[in-house]
Every structure is written in C-alpha cells, then in structure tokens.
User: Fold this.
Amino acid sequence: MTEDDWRGYEWVALSVTTVGALLASIQGSALLIALPDILASLKAEFLTIMWVLLSYLLITTACVPVVGRLADIWGRKTLFNAGFAVFTLGSLMGGLAQPQFHGADLVVARVIQGIGGALLFTNSTAIVADAFRHGRIGLGLGTNQIAFAAGFLLGPVAGGLLTALSWRWVFLANVPLGVFGTIWGIRRLREPVAPARTQTLDRLGSLTFTIGLGLFLLGLSMIAFPLLGALFVDGATVIGALLLVAFVAIELRQRQPMLDLRLFRRPDFAFASATGALNGLARGAVLFVLIFFLQGPYGKDPLAAGLLMTPFGAAFMLVGPASGYLSDRVGARGLSSAGLAVSAVGLLGLATIQAATPYWQLAAYMALMGGGSGLFSSPNTNALMSAVHPHERGSAAGIYTMLNNTGQMLSIVVAFPLVLSRIPEDVMFRVFLYGGGMGAAPAALATFEGGAHEAFLVSFVITLAAAAVSALRPARLRHQREDFLEPPATAAK
Assistant:
C-alpha cells in the first residue's frame, strides 16, 4: 500500500474498533440503570445480580492472554469479527432471559458476552497499533479512547430510555449494532501484519492459565460476593494458585509459549505493564463506590447517579486524545506519571466527601480523576505497544488487558468489604438497586462514609505507588527499527 492508502486505512480501522468500544462501554453503564427492573422481572437474588456484573469481567480477564496469542497466529481481523458475533449472540441471549431461571441464564449470557469482549478488546488495541504507523500509534489509541468515554457518558441516558421500554432492550439494542459491526469489520478490516501461521499455540499452557486464573479470581471474588460455601471458595483459590504456578513452569520450557515471559525483560513493556496493573488495582472499585455514594448519601436514583458521573467521562474524553498525540513526541514517562499524580489528587479529595459535600466539589474531584486517567492511559498503552514487534502486539495487548482487569477485580474484592459488608444487607440492597438515600439509617450512613473514605485512601496510596513506578521508566520510547514499522510484503488483505 502507498502512504495515502495507509493514512486512509488508519481511519477505517479506527472506525471499526470504535463501534466495538462504544458497544461494550454503553452496555456496561446502561446495565447499572436496568438492574432494578431485571431483579424484579427475573425474580433474582441480589448476589445473582452482582454476578451479572462480575461474570463479564471475570471471563474477559481469564481469556484475553490466550486471545492475544491466537491473534498473533491466526490474525486480528478474524478474531475481532468473531468477537462482534459472539458479543451479539450473548446480547440476544441476555435479552431473552426468563424468570424461571432466576437470573442464571442471564449470567450465562454475560459470560458469552465476556468471551466476545475478550476477542474485541484484545484485538482492538493491536488493530489500531498496526494501522497507525511511523510515530502515530499514540494518536490512534488516544482517539479510540473517545469511544470508551462517550459510551460511559451515553450509557446512563441510553439505559434510562431503553429501560423505560423494557430492560430487555438494554441487551437487544446491541444486536443490530453488533450485526453492523461484524459486517463492517469483515468488509473493511485488513491484516497489515502477516499472521505468524508457522507458529503453534501452546495448548497445555493456555488451558492451565485460563482455568488457573479463572479459578483464582473466582475464589477471591466470592470472598466479597459469596454464593457458595467456604470450602469451595478456599478450594478454588488454592487450586487456581497452584495451576498458575504450574503454568509458569510449563511456559519456561516452551519454545513458543502462550505468554512470553521474556517480554518483561524489555523495560518499556515491563514498566507499562506494572503501572497498568497498579492503575487497575487502584481504580477498579472507584466508580463502583461513587455510584453507591451518589445513590446512598446523595440520595439519587440510578439514572440521576449515572448522569452525575459525567465529569469523569467528560474529562477523560477531552484529555485522552491529546495525551496520545503528545506521547508520540515526548514519550510516556512524563505524561503517564503526571496523569497518575493528578488522579491521586482527585482520590485524596474523594476521601473527604460526605453527604453534605456540595456537588461542584465532588464533580471537581471526579474531573481530576477522569483527566488524570486520560493523561495516563494512551501514553502508557503506546509505550507498551511500541515495545514489541508487530507480530507480538496481540500477545502484548492480551497481557496488558489481563493485568489491568485482574487489578480491577482485586480492587473490588478489597473495596466491597470496606464499603458495603458493614452495612445491613437490606439497606445495601435498596440503595444499590433503587437509590433514594440513607436518611432512614443514620448509623449505616456513617459506616458507609467511613468505609468509602478508607477505600479511596487505599486507592490513593496505590496510585502514588503507580506514579513512582511510572517515573522510573526510560525517559523516551526507544527508537524502533524499520522492521517494527513496515508490514511484511506478504501481509494479507
């Protein structure tokens, strides 16, 4: 392809991945608004509804490294389009969930959506990095983030409007978008980087890792959201940990490992991965706690609470593209470290909020967090993707997403006991699903505020640690060789 062809394809690739990002991000925030209606319609228990939220993140986290490796071997286009199709199928199943199963079939649908999400997210980053060449990767990644932020902003509105018709439309509305995205991807996506079809997938390592990480995170999650007895929880955690240890031993002996641990010898990759994991650990439960705060101490209903979260998404959307563009020129260290520092200031402010805190003050703290996240995210991902060869980008994206999502799940496991486990279950149930305040339970209100302050302070400390790690990385992206930039002449169309 000529340079003009490449510039044209950059925006084609971005348009396809943007549809996927928008679809998934709208679904996440819209679903929160629909939960009360889902609970009533399906006659489900509160913990089942919590697993409707958590199962998606759990399955995505466990699958993304394997998906990334497969993308390097089979090609990004095929797996990305398959992700659209699988996500669409899960959405259809979710919209058709029936009361006699009490929400269990909806959890299954969310697991299927999670598999589709793993295929979409892992390949999305690699597709954008493949398309935007010659020092333009940060621009592409930053622009792609607009879709995530826009989905976060539009989700509560879409959720409110669709739930007014029926909660089922929160899922069913994804179906035409998913069909369009699948067809659009099949018609327009290319393979700028030829797949490494001569390589093979490490099946034993893939199986050991997926089951091990899945069981380990499942066990930890059930500490916060118990569904089964202590014996199962302890067993899942221990067996998962042992399988992960076995996985490392297997990978060290493989010539073509599923997860190439040697990537961590590259400073840019190692520092970007570490800061991404710490950022996920610090940030995973923050929005979760803020939603509870807006529905509890602030007394808002779920739709109003979602709309009041706008400052976070708006600041992220404004800063993200600019930071991505700048990272192509000045590197990731300064921008990412500054972004984490700004987020830390916002978290420190959130550790002081109470029911009487004026909204403008809360909005300022959320904007600091959102702006800091936008300043951090694109440069850090740019550093990671620029540290690997094009044929390794799928694996790199999978590793990064897995580490970030694992941090998010661990964050929820830490925050839930701090914030909610001390509150009577009936109060927690009512506030999370319906909002309306905690005025009738002043003791629960005081307990909630104290727990929220502790959770935000923990996030503040972890964010400072992430900023310190980020500041230790190399000052500039290392100079890439030409074979990092130019796709092979045999690349598939």
Observations:
- The chain has 19 helices and no strands.
- The domain at 3-189+258-485 is CATH 1.20.1250.20 (Growth Hormone; Chain: A;).
- The longest helix spans residues 3-42.
